[in-house]
UniProtKB/TrEMBL annotation:
This is Elongation factor P. It comes from Paenibacillus paeoniae. Pathway: Protein biosynthesis; polypeptide chain elongation. Belongs to the elongation factor P family. GO terms for biological process: peptide biosynthetic process. Coiled coil: none annotated. It comes from the Bacteria. The lineage of its organism: Bacteria, Bacillati, Bacillota, Bacilli, Bacillales.
Amino acid sequence: MISVNDFKTGLTVQVDNDIFTVLDFQHVKPGKGAAFVRSKLKNLRNGNVVEKTFRAGETIGRAQIENRAVQYLYNSGSEYTFMDNETFDQFNLDKKQLEWEINFLKENMTVNITSYQGEILGIQMPNSVDLKVTETEPGVKGNTAQGATKNATVETGLTVQVPLFINEGDVLLIDTREGKYISRA
């Protein structure tokens, strides 16, 4: 059990039989009445973000989340197959569980799997990945003052905004949290 007064960003807690991670919290001490903690929590099972208010000093369950390294092998339709790097066990995740992560997954890539008491909640991507440009228009110099960009499609099918000097075949460093171009790799 943990007191809501000890909330930290990134902490995983169990509330109403669901697993949440704390995205944001604020301790509020009104002039009249009891203090409380206003929090923004992300449900790790379905991805929904909810706002909850707790009385100051209230205790809730702490969820022990397990992270372990796995290797992405391949996909067949809506099933994505992974292999545990320690036990070599293979398991499948549905496309619904990996909606955002699919944009960055390449075969043989190592990612971290997040689980709670044997239930797989999702995967954690590295902060950035190297992806090869498969399609982009040629850069055309024009009367641009600064920061001109164009669309580029990378090997996973993701389309990102890139500078005009990027060509097909270039390998780019892409931020997996926002899906944005960082630099050439």
